[in-house]
Design brief:
By secondary structure, the protein is an all-alpha fold. Helices cover 76% and strands 0% of the residues. The chain is flat, with a radius of gyration of 22 Å.
Length: 150
């Protein structure tokens, strides 16, 4: 960062893509290029996460004695990081990774960590469900559940 508090680095000003006179068109082109680059990077991270998730799933499912739990935990920890980077911290894919990681921690006899991971995954799923309900115009799903209980 250049120390100005704007969040821009020195390299941005040196490349001519920062704020300044006369470079408006170049800045917009640079912005579009950066957006495409972020999109490509996000898709690559998502594909990498799919691959690592597949490997972790194979390790998790083929492990009868529990000897590959640590390897599967490492894989799903990487999947979690990749999903957060590509999809955002509150994406359903992040919740899936958290829930699977929680199951693996439970199988590895770490119930406290498993519970924390699963609660976080459920929190994200709850947010996603609420957003989906609101987008479909069905109102608050919790209120509907309370009405169904009554």
């Amino acid at each position: 960062e250049d120390g100005s508090g704007t969040g821009r680095g020195v390299a941005d000003e040196e490349s001519g893509r920062g704020s300044g006179g006369g470079g408006g068109g170049a800045a917009r082109r640079g912005s579009a290029e950066e957006e495409r680059e972020r999109d490509v990077t996000s898709r690559l991270r998502s594909r990498m996460a799919d691959t690592v998730q597949w490997r972790g799933s194979l390790r998790m499912n083929d492990d009868a004695e529990g000897s590959m739990i640590d390897d599967a935990v490492a894989d799903f920890t990487e999947v979690l990081w990749l999903r957060k980077k590509s999809d955002g911290a509150d994406a359903p894919s992040v919740a899936d990774a958290l829930l699977t990681l929680g199951l693996l921690k439970f199988r590895g006899r770490d119930a406290q960590a498993a519970l924390a991971l699963m609660w976080e995954g459920l929190r994200i799923r709850r947010i996603a469900a609420k957003v989906e309900e609101e987008e479909k115009g069905r109102g608050d799903w919790e209120a509907r559940l309370l009405l169904a209980d009554a």
